[in-house]
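Loading example: each entry is read as three labelled lines plus one structure line.
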Amino acid sequence: MSGKVKVPYLFLIPVLMFGFGYLMVPMYDLICDITGLNGKTGSISTAEASQLTVDADRMVKVEFLGTVNDEAPWDFGPKVTSMMVHPGRQYQTSFVAKNTIDKTIVGQAIPSVAPGKAATYFNKTECFCFNQQTFEPLESREMPLVFVIDPGLPESIDTVSLSYTFFDTGKLTGK
Amino acid sequence: MNAAATEADHHHGPAPGLMRWVTTTNHKDIGTLYLWFSFIMFFIGGLMALIIRSELFQPGLTIVDPHFFNQMTTMHALIMIFGVVMPAFVGLANWMLPIMVGAPDMALPRMNNWSFWILPFGFGIMLSTLFMDGGGPAAGWTLYPPLSLQTGDAFPYLIFSIHMLGVSSIMGAINIVATIMNLRAPGMTFMKMPLFVWTWFITAYLLIAVMPVLAGAVTMLLTDKFFGTSFFNAAGGGDPVMFQHIFWFFGHPEVYILILPSFGLVSEIIPTFSRKRLFGYSSMVYATASIAFLSFIVWAHHMFTVGMPLTGELFFMFTTMLIAVPTGVKVFNWVSTMWRGAMTFETPMLFALGFVVMFTIGGFSGLMLAMTPIDFQYHDTYFVVAHFHYVLVPGAIFGIIAGVYYWLPKWTGNMYNETLGKWHFWTSTVFVNILFFPMHFVGLAGMPRRIPDYAVQFADFNAIATIGAFGFGFSQILLLVLVIKCIRGGDKATDQVWEGAQGLEWTLSSPPPYHSFSVQPVIK
Amino acid sequence: MKNIQRVPGALLGAILLVLSGSALADWQLNLTEGVTEISREVYDMHMMVLWICVVIGVLVFGAMFYSILKHRKSQGAVPATFHESMVAEVGWTVVPFVILIVMALPAAKALIKMEDSSNSDITIKVTGHQWKWEYEYVDSGVHFFSSLDTASREAGVKNSGVDVNSVENYLLDVDNRIIVPVGKKIRFLLTSNDVIHAWWVPAFAIKKDAIPGYINEMWTNIDEEGVYRGQCAELCGKDHGYMPIVVEAVSEERYNEWVGEQIAAAEAEANSADKKWAMDDLMARGESVYATACAACHQANGQGIPGVFPGLVDSPIALGDVKAHIDIVLNGKAGTAMQAFGAQLSDVDAAAIVTYERNAWGNDTGDVVQPSEIKELR
């Protein structure tokens, strides 16, 4: 009789599918990078940024938002809440964070952009979010951010919101 | 077990005593175990549903506290899905698939024993979490992080029990695929297989494909909580929404795992009692296969509100709406099978007809939910609760009950009490609608799901639903009584049992011998 | 609706009630029509799909019940033998497909409109917390928390002894409503502090998840003034059912007024005595307040004008008992030019001045006077 199956092969399917479950993680990241699905921003070098042509006729409003996750002991927010910018030109602004307790804490800011479609056009040449930040007791710090909006930003987008969420990462590593 | 007993086991009949059930490798015994297990879990999960409905009978917290309420909704879902519907299907498959394809037993009988006996232990662990520090899981059966990571001591036990259920399902499914592929009697070509066999064949592939994905997802949760990984933690570069993608990549095929075998059962029963061949057999098979295929590319319709890009929302809306086409084909085929038949309405037929009508109602609300812009209003309200309960209770479970009534005389050799069966059907049908239909209204009116207390304007329909819940719950005791009575005695069943019944299972005696088809039948 | 309750099982009646459209489509039975262009579009689409389903249902179930009635063995029916029909099978594959396309087109159009958040007038950041909402008006800086009102909270607990039916807007009322203007495009940015929440107001037909670490956006444009209520729609833990949303839509003038009030109130709040102030902050503030309130007499360098206004450097008041110092600032000194500043200085300002005077110009006492201490001595 034809169509017989070797049973051990059947056991390969769940093993492969278990692997596929994990494969979905890099696949998801890849799709996010391409589509800006979860609002993760891009980053480019200063040299690349200076190559972009400035679109002097167009103004885009950039809003800055700060959130502290899980009621962690930080005061955190943007220095200015919004800026009008020309796509293609580099701008600098900063966020201010203050450790409100008498202990050293370690945190990291995670960026997110709304609308998600704008995320891939929002490029940073310098950002505090690239690294973990250590704060001495009661330390207050201004953290600079240099960014450029890609002139390819779709015409339908006139406002881009950049949000940073400050996470207490020291907790994660048990520090 | 001594050598003589082994001898007896292999050649004459079951071993005596309790050990028969522990060590059995006989597909009929294991089928019986699965069915009783799921019946017991049905009452446990039902009890939880009644606790939920009792709390919701009136506005204001009356019986439980909110945390316990969340544990009840979570456990009710996990038990009903993994402990009732899936084991019941596997039980029916164990009993009937070898007989329907003319095989002497399942292809992998020892593994069959294992796949059953993992279940009671898995659910023992899962239920024990209710008594742990911090209570049982309370984040919903979907286990979305970060909320599910707030679970107390129960968390690792919950994950472990889900792994056990997954292993059990995968082994069961592999066994079914192997049986269907390798043990069909001569002449039983694929396109001659009964629809129940076909739907299970496709379901088994779905199970093998997606249960490991669930296992992967919950393992990631486990390592996120205890081993410092950041799959779903934004702080470490992860994304909580990714869990939802992985979960529903499992979850949507799982939804069809819970309904396809019922499609098969109904496709067996309606022709029998219409005394007419199933209309559009091959289109039924193709429709089942297309539903299974589509189930892999629609998952994100469960998460339209997470903020997907427009293209994603459109894609998942279109694919989801497409499912209506093969599902519609099935319903039209069933109605055409009845058309100009010579119908009688024994209990299995009644449940099958109830299935067709009420599953279709669930299908309609599913179509409404598929449309993204309106889904923003329906999402996570009682409208969704009404939708999936219509699909699962008068859908999947009515299908299972229909199958039980259909084959009960075959299994026991005795006819069940038809009057009691009809009572069971009518009380179940009336109460299930009193229970779930008002949920459409409160959902549309704006009542979110998974809340222990609600605004007073939702009170009337919630009270009605609770009455329906108790009515439906107690109606199931009729089934228990009926099954026990039928096992103990009753009018002797003939081999064919039903006048219009076709298929290999009806060529065997009622009850069938402990070892059936030791000599392969030949299908012309 | 009460009738249905009296006739259990009158499901058909209930269905008809839903279907009879706007006349009976009150808040209790059907989807709300809402108060935005989008919500009305969504409502119309909902009714369209509902009707399509009803028509298909009537046809299919009609055929089925006709068959059940006529084609039964007890009626002497003899089974036909047909079991396939190419025409029928192709027909009922293609026709539903066409119907689906008819349904999908307006849905896609509405969706594109819903996703276009450009040209917004106001941005409000919404942060979900276990279990309350935090609102921040990005443009004006108005910022507050909004939690379940006390009446619901007290009535809702087990054995509260309060009939929840007597509580107005039970579980749907909050302490601080969000106020928005009508006729303006309001953009919401959603995020969360802990777990996933979802912000939903049925009257606007918008619902979106608030996800920790990520930001989501949606918008609305309300036509009618009024109070609109919603709830958290994503299971977020124990008190998921207890974090309602109340939006009050008002005229633009009223809105601007409200923003002004909020900014003033926020300032007062910031100045409130409850906050613990750091030395540096008090010193900075003290210097500026000192400049406006005290420097005219005591001079910016604290030396005063000898013989007329006493200097504060090394003065017994500034270096002595803190309470006496505060007392003289608040209450002045009878018979001298030192007036009582209590009425014109806020607690914070007074605390700042006292702290400043005790630590500036070499008066390094190290004393930090908190606003709360001022409050106590008033």
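The first helix of chain B runs from residue 3 to 11.
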